Structures
1.
Amino acid sequence: MTAAPAEVVTARDASVRRGGRVIWSQVDVTVRAGEFVAVLGPNGVGKSTFLQVVLGLLAPASGEVRVLGGEPGHANRRIGYLPQRHAFAAGTRVRGVDVVRLGWDGDRWGVPLPFGGAKARAARERVDEVIDLVGASAYAHRPIGELSGGEQQRLLIAQALVRRPDLLLLDEPLDSLDVTNQASVSALIQQVCRSQSVAVLLVAHDVNPILPYLDQVLYLAHGGAVIGPPEDVITADTLTMLYGTPIDVLRDRTGRLVVVGQPDTHEHH
Amino acid sequence: MTAHLSWNLVSDVRQLLQFPFMVNALRAGTIVAVVAGAIGYFMVLRRESFAGHTLALVGFPGAAGATWLGVNEGFGFFGFCILGAVVIAALPGGRAREQSAVIGTVQSFALASGLLFVSLYHGFLTGLNDMLFGTIIGITSTQVLTLLIAGVIALVVLAVIARPLLFASIDADVARARGVRVRVVGALFLLLLGIAAAGTSQVTGSLLVFALLVAPAATAIRLTASPVAGVTLSVVIALVVTWLGEGVAYFSPYPIGFWVTTFAFALFLLASGWRALADRRLAC
Ligand SMILES: Nc1ncnc2c1ncn2[C@@H]1O[C@H](COP(=O)(O)OP(=O)(O)OP(=O)(O)O)[C@@H](O)[C@H]1O
Ligand SMILES: [Mg+2]
């Protein structure tokens, strides 16, 4: 019998409060090494909050959350993170390569020695390598504030990848991309996930670009969550149960899923 | 003073260096330019120029109060600027740049109390001018030593926090997730800014700190988008405008602050023009 891959993120009966309100509760999740997981749910349901809990920036109000074998926050150097809707001000005159480089060693004290030998060379090579991987070489040397949202997004994905993380937390990375780029970035994330056995938690509003690659989807709701293979979770029955309101899941001729009747969570409060 | 410009660079420089006060002025200017150039780069990147300007003005009541009490002016500059940095860092909300109303209040209060100290201490109008607009005369060797110690401390601390500071400045959310103590780094930087502002005020005067703290960095940032090149260029520009300003101030009747500001501003305009042209060419 082969052992199952290591558990990267686990939540047991977890709940979280923000500003005195319970955002979600009774969340049970297990994500293993190398899994590609989509985090779905309507606006304000707490998807970004979930990533912040995994990062240890926010403590769960109850239950247990473990990340990479310890408390959340203890191993953040092994996590690549891309926050939500994250555009640089137009006047930010720092190059894309510098932003990616910060992902490599921006948290270290001190400055690297100028012309600092093998270590510096390794850093530069790794930075170039990920920039190439995300296809951003053409504009990586331009000031990041002058790049388009999609170009910035690719560089930020490179920044998240540069330290070969074991866990990637991507908050709506496909947000500012056009359809073609959504497909290529999704394929890229899936390739990194598979080839380097990186667990990926990806928040999305449209599941379709990533649907073929997903191992699990996590649907969050006010009172709980469901997690499982997409074909089990994205169904009318499951979602109707979860949100307590009639929901239909339609499939068009090209196989795209459309979820109809998703509730606005703000009505719960 | 027998300032006489011969238009022979070598003999002019030799003439400058004959006078101990001029040597001290150049030493002080050099130290201050290096510190202001480096710290100014991060200040401009963090959009904290307003906080920097306020800290510089806070030095004015410090110096005026110190003179009134008969204490060394340098203590007044550094004491008040560092205190001001602590106050701004402790402001609720944490992000100094978002607190412009509060910082503005601090600023006008600082100016007002400076003027109060000036009127309490009767009759030192020349001293007031020097505090506000700078002077090349009367920088003592002790002052130079104080500037040197403060400058070295500031640069060492800056070198230690440089990477997390850059990270926190351009991408606070990701930096925080990576374990950077964003608030601590920001507060430390405000302290450095206080030190830089205090030192710079002693050369250019409190009102013209822009000349060394903002203009060289803003010029450098228009010319390069690489942080290492940016810091280096900012320091070089600050040095050049300081030396030029001090040299010209020696041969002219006008205060040093005016000259340093003029050169710094001229370079800034040139760089902005060049940037606009370069961007236009890219767009075509
Ligand atoms: N810093 C905060 N303090 C208090 N409440 C917050 C804070 N940030 C978010 N919230 C609240 O927590 C809830 C969940 O927010 P979150 O950003 O996690 O939602 P989300 O699922 O990511 O939504 P979206 O799809 O719009 O990104 C929202 O009701 C929001 O108002
Ligand atoms: Mg969100």
2.
Amino acid sequence: MGTDEFVFLLTGLKWTVILSAIAFVCGCLGGLAVALARTSGIKLLERATAAYIGVFQGTPLLMQLFVVYYGLALVGFKIDAWVAVATGLTLHASAYLGEIWRGSIEAVPRGQTEAAKALSLKYVSRMRDVILPQALRVSLPATIGFLVQLIKGTSLASIVGFTELTRAGNMISNQIFQPLTVFGIVGLMYFLLCCPLTIFGAHLERRFAASAR
Amino acid sequence: MTNPSATQADAMITLTHVEKWYGAFKALHDVTMSVHQGEKIVLCGPSGSGKSTLIRCINSLEPHQKGEIRVDGIVLGPNAKAIDAIRREVGMVFQQFNLFPHLTVLENCMLAPMRALGLAKSEAESRARALLERVKIAEQAAKYPAQLSGGQQQRVAIARALCMQPKVMLFDEPTSALDPEMVKEVLDTMIGLAEDGMTMICVTHEMGFARQVADRVIFMADGAIVEQAPPAEFFSNPAHERTRKFLGEILNH
Ligand SMILES: Nc1ncnc2c1ncn2[C@@H]1O[C@H](COP(=O)(O)OP(=O)(O)O)[C@@H](O)[C@H]1O
Ligand SMILES: [Mg+2]
């Protein structure tokens, strides 16, 4: 495998990182909205977001990408593969992060909300200053765990024709007929991306466990 | 029998025929009472009699379904404005302290004045430091709640509530979660507050505190007020059998 091929793989890696970052950042915003809606106490919002989470947790990510990709085309949006994929992954991430954070918001003791109310703090301040800092801290290991899943999940974008790392690998492999070498390198690249995150997540989890003692 | 000096005019808190349900369970039965400015009330009664429910209705941590609750002239209704106005005037101290664990002692005290009253940071800080001084814990300002003893945490919780400059303080069994040797430091803080003229409703079984500080002791059972009297009369000559039985139980153990 020559330098050109390797550079092509690096370009694929770059798109994997960009796609993961976009999906994660947008998914964090969406997930926050979902988590707040899920815990809002407003029945309609809670039911709607519960259904949303249920759909995205109960179907394969690949189906979700297909539906967004072909679905948006069907209703007349002519969009790039990468916009479709970023949208699909964002919707997917919003559901999962929303559910992770709902759990951690509900795990903050009721007394915290009551103390904040008694101090006449309003909803925005109660959430921003009291509940979310505690909830997000607790959920950090699970959040990082999901980010790793998301990075690996971006490989499915190759199937709808977006040239990220996996599809780049496929193309090179078809060119030079060394699938084992190529996919070995591709796998190593995923590993180098994900492994530090996994270690960081485990480190945080140990630190929280120690401070909870 | 009740409270000759409390007229409607200087009533800080009035409850009129208040009823509260938790679903199908009726937790407060036709509660009518009034607390005038500067008055100290001790609220006692067996576990499950509705003491917490009663004081939590006053600052709307629990909604009531019937009757009227009025604090400093503001009628507590379902509208957010009235709830907010009342919460600004009413401080609360909980059995479990409920300090914010991710904030330092000082930050715990500064948060609400900055966010709810719009105080500048410097102003909130000097107010917080002054009140931490008052509860004799100023040297712990930079620590986190988990680094303090229970008694210290409860005194911080009192200072945190006082930072809002409330007109009324509600205490829900503030010493029940404390080790015995820490009860006194918290009670002393509350006595100091009472001496400074704060209007207070204290749910507590510390009968020594009731004798020393209370203007009136209110006894509840099964969600209703059974009797109320100045402490001397309440302890020496309780009118109801339920009260006698309750006093017998708590004074003998
Ligand atoms: N959130 C709640 N939901 C249902 N029932 C409750 C709730 N809080 C209190 N109760 C019931 O209301 C009654 C009064 O409770 P509470 O006010 O906590 O009593 P106390 O503080 O005097 O021990 C009890 O029977 C209790 O079980
Ligand atoms: Mg109680």
